[in-house]
Every structure is written in structure tokens, then in C-alpha cells.
Design a protein that fits this description.
The protein is mainly α and 185 residues long. 45% of the residues lie in helices and 4% in strands. The protein has a three-stranded antiparallel sheet with strand order 2-1-3, with no helix packed on it. Helix 2 runs antiparallel to helix 3. The termini are far apart. The relative contact order is 0.15. The protein binds zinc ion. Zinc ion is lined by residues 88, 90-91, 93, 109-110, 112-113.
């Protein structure tokens, strides 16, 4: 156990508390870090991405769902569960696009490999996922994703996250319930 004697708050992100959506997504990002990162583990790159996300949220310049997809991809990458989308995750052949994601190898599957232990994905969804997987978080405010593809991508990432970490994030459940959306399980 450590004792913290003194601290200075640089930014409390106080105004995020005035909006249900930003407070919910803010909690969700904290919960993701808590779930994915080991105690006492330091990750400066992820910390930078985390703080950048908070600034984007606070300034209301970004679509929260799109930002959360990009942050989820960063979290997965930072913890060794990065998505393999450029090559077939089974035979390692170069892959332009795919319509199937293997949950076992966390990546796209080509047309000649067997499509098992995974989930189908539309080519459009796959291409967006591939693009988002390589984007910097501070560029996320420029991106507009069609609603149906966003829903598809989020469902897949939720599945990957709940399969690979010991605990499933709960922060978004209430919001999804309020918004009446189909849940992302
Ligand atoms: Zn293959």
C-alpha cells in the first residue's frame, strides 16, 4: 500500500459531469483502463490517448461512439489483443478486406481459410475497422461512420473485450438502456 502525501490536479474535467453521455463515456474509458491494465503497470502511450480522449469529449468535438471504438482498439492493442486486419489471421496472407472475424485469433479470415470460432462482418464494417485500427486518437473528430456499420463494429469489439479480459465493462449498460438501443452484448 502506498500513501499519497500531496497532489495537484491539473484538470478535473468538471464540466464533463453536466452531460449524461460524456459522464457515462468518461466512466466507461476509466473502467476499460481498470479492467485491461495491471495494477502498477505504467503505459505512457495509453495514458496520452486516454487524456486526449477526455479533452475531445469535454470540448464536444467528437462523436462519442466513434471515439470509444478507437479507444477500445487502442486498449486492445496496448494489452496484446490488437486486431490483425492486414493479413489473414490464420494463413498470414495479405488481406484487402474480409467478411469474417476470428475471435480465436482476433483478426480477419481470408476466403480460403476455414471460417470458424468467429463472427461474420460486412466488408464495409471491416474496412472501417481496419482504418480506425491505425488512426491516431486526436484525428477521431474527423470521422463519420454510418450508424449501421457503427453498431456492427461496436458489437464485435464488445464481444472481443468481454472474451479477453477477466471482467466485462458495465458503464454503458444504463445509457444503452435509456437510449433504448439494442444492447451491445
Ligand atoms: Zn487465410
Amino acid at each position: 500500500m502506498y500513501t499519497l502525501n500531496e497532489g495537484e490536479i491539473i484538470d478535473s474535467f468538471q464540466n464533463m459531469l453536466s452531460d449524461l453521455e460524456t459522464i457515462t463515456y468518461g466512466s466507461y474509458f476509466c473502467e476499460l483502463v481498470d479492467i485491461a491494465i495491471q495494477e502498477e503497470e505504467s503505459n505512457r502511450q495509453l495514458f496520452k490517448e486516454f487524456v486526449t480522449s477526455f479533452y475531445l469529449m469535454r470540448n464536444n468535438v467528437v462523436d462519442l461512439e466513434t471515439l470509444s471504438v478507437i479507444f477500445e482498439l487502442k486498449i486492445l492493442k496496448a494489452t496484446g489483443y490488437g486486431l490483425n486486419l492486414d493479413k489473414c489471421c490464420i494463413c498470414k496472407r495479405k488481406l484487402k478486406s474480409s467478411n469474417y472475424m476470428s475471435l480465436q485469433y482476433i483478426g480477419g479470415v481470408c476466403d480460403t481459410c476455414e471460417k470458424i470460432k468467429g463472427i461474420p462482418i460486412s466488408y464495409g464494417g471491416y474496412n472501417i475497422l481496419k482504418y480506425l485500427n491505425n488512426i491516431q486518437i486526436d484525428k477521431s473528430y474527423r470521422i463519420i461512420i454510418p450508424e449501421n456499420l457503427k453498431y456492427e463494429i461496436r458489437r464485435i469489439l464488445t464481444t472481443i473485450i468481454s472474451q479477453n479480459y477477466f471482467r466485462k465493462p458495465k458503464s454503458l449498460e444504463t445509457l444503452n438502456f435509456i437510449k433504448g438501443s439494442e444492447n451491445y452484448e
